[in-house]
Amino acid sequence: MSSSTNTAGSINRITKEIAHINKSGDLSLAVACRDEDVRQLRALIVGPPDTPYEFGFFEFQVKFPKEYPIKSPSVICITTNHGRTRFNPNIYAQGKVCLSILGTWHGEKGEEWSSAQGLESVLLSIQSLMSPNPWENEPGEEGGKLTEAKPAAYANKVRHETLRIAVISRLEKLLNINPSTIVVREQVEEGPPTKSAKITAKLKSLKHWGHNHSSDSDLVNEDDPETSVSEPSEYDAEATYNSLNPSPWDPFTDLVKRRFLWYYDSYVQAIEKARSQQEDGTKFVVTRFESDDNGMSGKYAYAQLLARLNNIRDVLSSECTTWTQQGAKQVEAKTQLATQLAFQFNQLEYRYNKSSYEGSRLEISLPDKKNPFAWHLTLFGQSSTNLDGGVFNISFTIPPDFPTTWPRVYVETPIFHHRVSRSTGALCYFPAKPEEINSHLKAIIAAIEDVEPRFDPRAVVNPEAAKLLWGSEADKKTYFRKLRRSAQDSMEL
Fold it and tell me: Does residue 342 share a domain with residue 260?
């Protein structure tokens, strides 16, 4: 390394780029780093809508060299199903990401890395690989249309594995759910990974990040002679990352849970549509550019996926009960958070219930007056709007580790709204200051009233409502008619 390397300047630039991404409002990207090492990041890319990757949670490890930005960062995908699943012709099962911008692929002149580029451009370049027709990313197959058999078959299995690995297994890992305990009528067995695939994936990932092992025996699971690595679940990001850094760390836990509740209806819609096209038990088509240790093999099992998806929804719903119970214990222990929440409730109760703040459209209360972790909100529809006369009940549960984790918000009164899930009642909203309770309350009001709706496919929680709202003029009228009907019906509940 040259002695002229500007280490301080490099770190300063990386810090600014992280802040820019997290403040940009782009719901498709998130990045995080440990306080002690800004050069090693964890990045999350949410799969683009209307693609086989739709709303999947794809995670990457990004490592910056000391010469950054003169030299490009290195990137490895850690959502690979233990090195068994290649999600794209350019995203290998071993985690390699083939891009000319990263120097891992020989592209055209002018496509290589330059210091004018940065972390955001790298992540957007990876995201661009997640296209409606991923087949086209394979050299020599650029002309393959999605209407053709092979490209369509490839996209179909990518969609299935996105749901299985990048959504369902991801949440099951977070919630400590054992998928084998979920009973469905149709059970489809999936073949275990080959021994060579496991060793190859583990060794390559460790070698990539500079970890040295004296022998392959470090990777052997003595309790299972047929496997080379102990694998507690399908999802591999945590296992892979923890092998690089032994202290547990998952910066996207809350984000992934919230987004699952947002996108639940979309996941169900994707499964129902796919089930009508691919029969469960049918083997995936293997393409010419895939191999045993770098491909995507398996069988369609949508009945299984739907059962697991619904189980995750139920477990997430029960978290509110757990949070309320944990909050009650904090009240007994007189923790700082419990004391602060009680004080804030008293302030906000006066502000919303007894003054003209926010037009007195919101009233707040505590179902248990001794527990400030569980709130009840009542939003009254503003006059001369589509919500005129409506009375909407909302549960607002504050987690015991707030503000690290956001409150869980469910609209309990049925409402036909593009920001409210019809299945779960989960509300998609964006507080300006997530660390402030009142910011959450104001954002809840703004999200439901949504005076000037702006289309962002990643903020769509009710696909049917969104399709009408941003459809034809006739569709738009239908949307607002259904919204007004929701307000009218709410008065009768």
Answer: no
